[in-house]
Design a protein that fits this description.
The structure is a single chain. With 473 residues, the chain is of the alpha/beta class. The chain has 13 helices and 21 strands. Among the domains are: 157 residues, 3-Layer(aba) Sandwich (Rossmann fold), CATH 3.40.50.12160; 56 residues, OB fold (Dihydrolipoamide Acetyltransferase, E2P) (Beta Barrel), CATH 2.40.50.140. It is 33% helix and 21% strand. The chain has a six-stranded parallel beta sheet, sandwiched between helices. Strand 2, helix 2 and strand 3 form a beta-alpha-beta unit. Bound molecules: S-adenosyl-L-homocysteine (SAH), iron/sulfur cluster and FE3-S4 cluster.
């Protein structure tokens, strides 16, 4: 049993990160463990966690399990969790109630949890006390060990916990079962060293470790060969890519080399404003296959709050960067993340945030109420904004954000834009859906033959969250 430890998770060592190409091992006797058995994996959280979910599914299929769409049909249920805010926690604990019920009816099913919540000391303590019936827990650094963890849990029939607090090395040979045949996620780095004071990620994902460019480029070339149209380069702060490598190779170099593979669409998330260089902007404008879409989290428009958050930029430098981006990439869409109700946020601080929203008129924004995370510095600050005030601020902010989303979308009316058609719309199966180069959701009428294609679409109807259009032949 290895359980997480917050003090260890905070540490950053200068230990060299090794690249391991044989670390994922599937012993012959483990390959048949899942024969005739079904699995259900539920993933919460960010794209990185979704991508981990794709690795987990491939590993389970290597063990002969087959995927099913509901947990009621499954012999193995795994929750791949997110720890970013309290409501993410609550959802998982709510779901565990349902799983417990199933386990009572069918004691032979195997149940486990993994992901960012599994990296939290308080969560694992609670699981050991109150959720003894869960068969196994593993962390974000142990995914490649899933075959061994699972088989131990099954054989020993006692709760198996394996969560390393300090990150491991980079494992390059983990298989992947991608959710889409047309667009793919590619990790370019793991972890985060920014330690924004509110954020749990540096503790759950460990120190920043960039993948070597040759592995990333090989993955892109392979995906292109398989017919993929779009890739998204993933990292908590992609702009800092390469800073931890022992070669002189940065995000702008990677963008250029990926663009040269001629894969049709390249996206990247997330950009921290602090590390956005002019060279990066130049590469984005130079290569038409780097999509004109930038997610640039603001978090707050108040310099006092930004300082308390440890974001290392001011509203002035944020605006300067924003304006530079708009000037050099006039067609681009820019989206953001904003937190309201951070400790010490006065009405005036909040108005500063609204001011920036009014200036930048973001294409869209994810907005959140501050949620204290155990172990982070902000959790020790005085949470002094009353609950109903936080909700009021969020509501006001959302109203403004939605107004600008709608305005930004209106500019697309009657324009012809390229859309990668992904499949049928989940909301209305009469429509196909896809995204523009600028990441706008578009619904169109059409048949199967355009799925997986980038087609020109004339926008005929514009809404706040999506648009309708018709395919131009
Ligand atoms: N690495 C990304 C953010 C990943 S988390 C970046 O730095 O931009 C996604 C978003 O969740 C953050 O941008 C932030 O707005 C929000 N968030 C993170 N921790 C939070 C917390 N404790 N309470 C509320 N929102 C939080
Ligand atoms: Fe969290 Fe900040 Fe790292 Fe983003 S940059 S993951 S907000 S610590
Ligand atoms: Fe959540 Fe972990 Fe991602 S906390 S947002 S799943 S890195």
């Amino acid at each position: 049993m290895i359980i997480p430890n917050l003090t260890e998770a905070k540490k950053r060592t200068s230990k060299e990160v090794l690249v391991k190409t044989n670390e994922y091992i599937m012993e012959n006797e483990l390959k048949k463990i899942g024969q005739g058995k079904k699995y259900f994996v539920k993933t919460y959280g960010c794209q990185m966690n979704e991508h981990d979910g794709e690795n987990i599914k491939a590993i389970l299929e290597d063990m002969s399990f087959t995927e099913v769409g509901t947990m009621e049909e499954a012999d193995l249920i795994l929750l791949n969790t997110c720890a970013i805010r309290e409501n993410a926690h609550n959802k998982v604990f709510g779901y565990l109630g349902r799983i417990k019920h199933l386990k009572e009816e069918r004691p032979n099913i195997i149940t486990g949890i993994c992901g960012c919540m599994a990296q939290e000391e308080v969560v694992v303590e609670e699981i050991m006390k109150k959720y003894k019936w869960l068969d196994f827990v593993f962390g974000t650094h142990n995914i490649h060990k899933l075959p061994q963890i699972l088989s131990t849990a099954i054989v020993r029939k006692q709760q198996e916990i394996e969560v390393m607090s300090v990150e491991g090395d980079i494992v390059e040979n983990i298989p992947v079962k991608r959710a889409s045949k047309y667009k793919a996620w590619i990790n370019i780095m793991y972890g985060c060293d920014k330690f924004c004071t509110y954020c749990i990620v540096p503790y759950t994902r460990g120190k920043q470790r960039s993948r070597h460019p040759e592995y990333i480029l090989e993955e892109v070339r392979q995906l292109k060969k398989e017919g993929y149209k779009e890739i998204t380069l993933l990292g908590q702060n992609v702009n800092a890519y390469g800073k931890d490598l022992n070669i002189d190779y940065k995000m702008e170099d990677l963008l250029e080399d990926v663009a040269k593979t001629k894969i049709e669409r390249i996206r990247f998330v997330t950009s921290h404003p602090w590390d956005f260089t002019d060279d990066m902007i130049n590469k984005i404008s130079k290569y038409p296959n780097i999509m004109p879409y930038i997610h640039l989290p603001l978090q707050s428009g108040s310099n006092k709050i930004l300082k308390l958050m440890g974001r290392r930029y001011t509203k002035e430098t944020y605006l300067e960067l924003f304006q530079k981006l708009k000037q050099k990439l006039p067609y681009s869409s820019i989206t953001t993340d904003i937190i309201v109700g951070f400790p010490g946020e006065t009405q005036e601080d909040f108005e500063d945030t609204l001011d920036i929203v009014n200036t930048c008129k973001f294409d869209s924004a994810f907005t959140f109420i501050f949620s204290p995370r155990v172990g982070t510095p902000a959790a020790k600050m005085k949470d002094d904004v009353p609950e109903d005030e936080k909700r009021k601020r969020l509501q006001r902010l959302n109203q403004l954000v939605n107004q600008y989303s709608n305005e930004a979308n209106q500019k697309y009316f009657n324009k012809i834009v390229p859309v990668l058609i992904e499949g049928y719309s989940e909301k209305d199966s009469k429509y196909l859906m896809g995204y523009t180069d600028t990441m706008k959701l578009v619904n169109v009428k059409g048949d199967d033959s355009v799925i997986g294609q980038i087609v020109n679409v004339r926008i005929t109807d514009v809404k706040t969250w999506s648009m309708n259009g018709e395919i131009i032949q």
